[in-house]
Amino acid sequence: MSKRYHVQADWDAEAKVWVSSSNIPGLHIEADTLGEFMELVEALAPEMLSDNLGIHGPVPLDVQANGVLLLTVA
């Protein structure tokens, strides 16, 4: 079985950005929205897998997001 790769998106409330942690060498993402974060993952993860690990072809990628939203309920 091939190695599993993952990207974790964590909300940094102080900086107000989503920040990545990953087991893909060289992949570091910061984005204002989760949608933008995912677009950057799709654009940058294949490049990092190819350039830094020599991987080509389909690669499953686990993506998880964690954050806390402060809601005002009327």
TrEMBL record:
Signal peptide: none annotated. InterPro entries: DUF1902 (IPR015066), TTHA1013/TTHA0281-like (IPR035069). Residues 5-65 form the DUF1902 domain. Pfam families: DUF1902. This is DUF1902 domain-containing protein. It comes from Caulobacter mirabilis. The lineage of its organism: Bacteria, Pseudomonadati, Pseudomonadota, Alphaproteobacteria, Caulobacterales.
